[in-house]
């Protein structure tokens, strides 16, 4: 089995590299944006022709949420056009596409976990382009898995956990938003789940294509997330809660974006750990 990983130098791409040794029977091909420019159809065609992947895990994305409000063309190119190109070459090569999406496709007005059949209503350019990316994949392909995730953290790349640790070591006090609720996702757990889906699809012929939610279990606010990070890392800091209104950002964030994981657990028999159990130093 050959799995092609796009965006290999990003947080999730590096997390797939971390879990890959558990799967010696799989050949992983890692492509960063220099090796594979997903916004260029010819680049996609060349890589797929060279490696003939059975599966493609698309972790490449424009994820600068606030910058996307002004860099709309770039966000569209990567999140929409890039997804369209990968879907086209996946179809031509009979490759199953696993496409990673986001909780930002929702407006956050719900007060119970979002399911896969809830109607998306993004309130930011980032969320809108990620939704459009989902839609082009669905319009072109039959063999796809769209996995929506949230609040991704790990020892790799840029993320909330690493930012908090850095600020905690630089400052005596810090204020963090306490009225946005979601669920942190440990990137290696997501990576492992993506690989398991490929394996189950190949070995047991579990197709069940469509949209799935994945994050770790539990829920918290950003303030509570930060508090736990400082606790695990034994960082003493004066942490203060802050309302969203006191910390305006260019892009509007969902106030509530907890994802319901019952579907992915039932279909693929996946056990998901609570986010507090996987928080690392």
Beta-sheet strand percentage?
A: 15-25%
Number of separate domains: 1
CATH architecture identity: 3-Layer(aba) Sandwich
Task: Characterize the overall form.
Answer: globular
Please give the number of β-strands. 12
Largest sheet: 6 strands, parallel
Order of helices and strands: EHEHEHEHEEHEEEHEEHEHH
Q: Mind telling me the C-alpha Rg?
A: 18 Å
Total helical elements? 9
Question: Within the CATH hierarchy, at the fold level, what is the topology?
Answer: Rossmann fold
Category from helices, strands and their pairing = alpha/beta
What is the topology?
Layout (H helix, E strand, L loop, with lengths): L1 E5 L4 H9 L7 E5 L9 H11 L3 E4 L13 H22 L2 E7 L22 H16 L3 E6 L2 E2 L6 H11 L2 E5 L3 E2 L2 E2 H17 L6 E4 L6 E2 H11 L5 E5 L19 H7 L6 H4 L3
Parallel strand pairs: 1-2, 1-3, 3-4, 4-5, 5-10, 6-9, 7-12
Antiparallel strand pairs: 8-11
What does this structure look like?
- The chain is α/β, with parallel strands linked by helices.
- It has a single domain (2-158, 185-218, 258-274), classed as Rossmann fold (3-Layer(aba) Sandwich), CATH 3.40.50.
- 38% of the residues lie in helices and 17% in strands.
- The chain has helices at 11-19, 41-51, 72-93, 125-140, 160-170, 187-203, 222-232, 262-268, 275-278; strands at 2-6, 27-31, 55-58, 96-102, 144-149, 152-153, 173-177, 181-182, 185-186, 210-213, 220-221, 238-242.
- It has a six-stranded parallel β-sheet, sandwiched between helices. It has a two-stranded parallel ribbon with strand order 6-9.
- Helix 3 (72-93) links the parallel strand 3 and strand 4.
């Amino acid at each position: 089995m050959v799995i092609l990983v796009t965006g290999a130098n990003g947080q999730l791409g590096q997390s797939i590299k971390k879990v890959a040794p558990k799967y010696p029977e799989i050949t992983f091909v890692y492509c960063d944006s220099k090796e594979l420019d997903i916004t260029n159809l010819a680049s996609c065609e060349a890589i797929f022709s060279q490696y003939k992947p059975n599966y493609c895990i698309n972790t490449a994305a424009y994820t600068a949420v606030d910058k996307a409000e002004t860099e709309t063309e770039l966000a569209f190119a990567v999140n929409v056009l890039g997804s369209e190109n990968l879907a086209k070459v996946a179809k031509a090569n009979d490759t199953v596409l696993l496409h990673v999406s986001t909780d930002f496709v929702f407006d956050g007005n719900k007060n119970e976990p979002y399911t896969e059949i809830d109607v998306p209503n993004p309130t930011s350019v980032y969320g809108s382009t990620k939704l459009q990316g989902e839609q082009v994949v669905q319009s072109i392909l039959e063999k796809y898995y769209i996995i929506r995730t949230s609040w991704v953290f790990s020892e790799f790349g840029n993320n909330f956990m690493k930012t908090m640790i850095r600020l905690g070591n630089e400052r005596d006090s810090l204020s963090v938003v306490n009225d946005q609720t979601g669920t942190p996702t440990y990137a290696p757990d997501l990576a492992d789940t993506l690989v398991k889906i490929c394996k189950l699809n190949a070995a047991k012929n579990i197709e069940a294509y469509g949209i799935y939610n994945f994050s770790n279990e539990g829920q918290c606010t950003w303030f509570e997330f930060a508090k736990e990070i400082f606790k695990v890392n034994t960082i003493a800091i004066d942490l203060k809660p802050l309302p969203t209104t006191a910390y305006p950002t260019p892009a509007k964030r969902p106030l509530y974006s907890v994802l319901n994981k019952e579907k992915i657990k039932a279909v693929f028999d996946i056990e998901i750990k609570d986010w507090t159990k996987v928080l690392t130093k």
